[in-house]
Amino acid sequence: MLNVQRCNLILKLINKNKNIKLTEIVDKLNVSEATVRRDLNLLEEKGKIKRVHGGAVLMDVAEEDIIFKKSIFSNEKNKIAKIAASFVKDGDKVYLDAGTTTGAMISYLAHKENITVITNGLSHLEELNKHKIQTYLIGGRIKGTTAAIVGGSAVLSLKNYSYDIAFVGANGVNEDGYSTPDEEEAAVKSTVVGNCSRVYFLCDSSKFFKKSFMNFARLEDGVLISEAKIPEELIKKRLNKNNQ
Questions:
Q1: Which is it for the CA torsion 99, 100, 103, 104, positive or negative?
Q2: In the chain, what's the furthest Cα-to-Cα distance?
Q3: Are 210 and 173 in contact (CB under 8 A)?
Q4: d(CA 100, CA 169)
Q5: Which end of the chain is more exposed for a tag (fewer CB within 10 A), N or C?
């Protein structure tokens, strides 16, 4: 098979789910890992994909930045944010994940009494300060496209904090759980979920039955909040897992 043919087939495979693992390509194309790596490097050089640990994601998913995210599904995100904020009690220590939906919660938190916010969202700081909400920013590497604090240092930094309730975003939710395209963001989200008993996942309905590259939580790890009716398949799967 010619190099250009393999690259076109790889792009078709990635387009299906917006991401793919290297081992999947090896199995489907029946070629060596070395060949697949060369093809992925070529596609990345052409700006078609972004390499991640163990595979690749589409460039439009990988480079989706905070400004673009704010411009899409804004009404849906505001509905979700208002619902989510209603679960915060006066005096709560609140973890707010980086992201535009969690960011939309801040104005709805302004009237809460004596709350403290812990966040990895650099873009949240101006709004939190505006509403005089006591805030702690975790340490770590700043991811430019999403203004999120990520990486091993961020995971270690989280161990310094305890919080009563956490709100976490996701790029996809399906029967396997919640996922995101970036392994470093996935590590932070997973740590947050593991450290808190009251976890809410904020996903607009465009994320239903989508799967991104890295799973970071199971359906039973928290409550899904969306602007639309949550599909029965996800509800049943979560309830079945909780009852096991």
A1: negative
A2: 65
A3: yes
A4: 9
A5: C
SS3 90: coil
How big, in percent rounded to 5, are the helix, strand and coil portions of the chain? 45, 20, 30
**Contact by Cβ (8 Å): 41, 51:** yes
Angle in degrees, CA 55, 150, 54, rounded to 5: 10
What's the rounded Cα separation, in Å, for the pair 227 and 143?
28
Residue 12 confidence class, pLDDT cut points 50, 70, 90:
confident
Could you tell me if 79 and 46 are in contact, meaning their C-beta atoms sit under 8 angstroms apart?
A: no
Q: How far is CA 32 from CA 16, 36, 37, 39, in A?
A: 22, 6, 9, 11
Tokens coding 168? 């976490």
**Residue 4 pLDDT > 50, yes or no?**
yes
How is residue 209 written in tokens?
Answer: 């039955």
What single-letter amino acid sits at 142?
A: I
Alpha carbon distances (Å) from 16 to 20, 57, 122, 211:
9, 11, 32, 10
CATH of domain 3-62: 1.10.10.10
pTM beyond cutoff 0.85: no
> b/e map of 103-112 (b: 16 or more CB within 10 Å)?
bbbbebbeeb
244 has pLDDT over 90: no
CATH number of 67-243: 3.40.50.1360
| Domain residue extents for the chain | 3-62, 67-243
155 HSE (CA, 13 A, CB side):
13
